[in-house]
Amino acid sequence: MAEEVVTCRRVSRTYAEEAVPVHALCRVDFELAAGEWVSLAGPSGSGKSTLLHVIGGLDQPTEGSIVVDGVEITGLAAADLSDLRLHKIGFVFQAYNLIPVLSALENVEFILQLQGVGRAERRQRSLETLDSLGIPELADRRPGEMSGGQQQRVAIARAIVTNPVLLLADEPSANLDTATTEELLDVLRNLNRSRGVTIVTATHDPMVMGYTSRQVNLRDGRVVTTGS
Length: 228
Known about the structure:
By secondary structure, this protein is α/β, with parallel strands linked by helices. It has a single domain (36-60, 77-227), classed as 3-Layer(aba) Sandwich (Rossmann fold). Helices cover 35% and strands 29% of the residues. It is built from seven helices and ten strands. The chain has helices at residues 48-55, 78-88, 104-114, 119-132, 148-160, 178-194, 206-211, and strands at residues 4-15, 22-33, 37-41, 63-68, 71-72, 89-93, 166-170, 198-203, 214-219, 222-227. The strands form two sheets. It has a six-stranded mixed β-sheet, sandwiched between helices. Strands 2-1-4-5 form a four-stranded antiparallel β-sheet, covered by helices on one side. α3 (104-114) packs parallel to α5 (148-160). It is globular.
């Protein structure tokens, strides 16, 4: 049996600062094995993005336990959590979050610079990653000079250049047309199959769900069904 990369036990997240407390997650149990590609599915407000964010350490659960690559991340000091995200988790957001004044190559290099990788090595690894995703011609372009699909590929390049244990993608197809979505999903499938990258996508897009090996359905902050 494959080693578990993520284990969530009775994870809850309540936003008590609202006038009426919002129970975004309610005692969720979730496991992710190495090499899986799982979709978190459900309508808006079901808790799928919240679950993705607590797994990635971008938000803290109100209660429960989350283990990522053998590390219990609940209760970690902010610096330790930041270090774990930097070295073990890649993020792809629907808004891309590229730095507008940097070229595609510089955006990809930036994460390696944060890791302390030397200039020559980070330049080589970044160019190789852009090439592996079929976009070497974008190296010198800034985000404003790219289409949405091109920006998303650059965002994926930035997320995987560090060879993370886990790739998290939040609604990656939200701003893309059908043809571009299919191209993006083919890229993710190739990463999953050829490199063995473990992926979790939060989505309500049936096309995305059709590519993943397992689907976890959430409603009102609870897991209601799970299956291939």
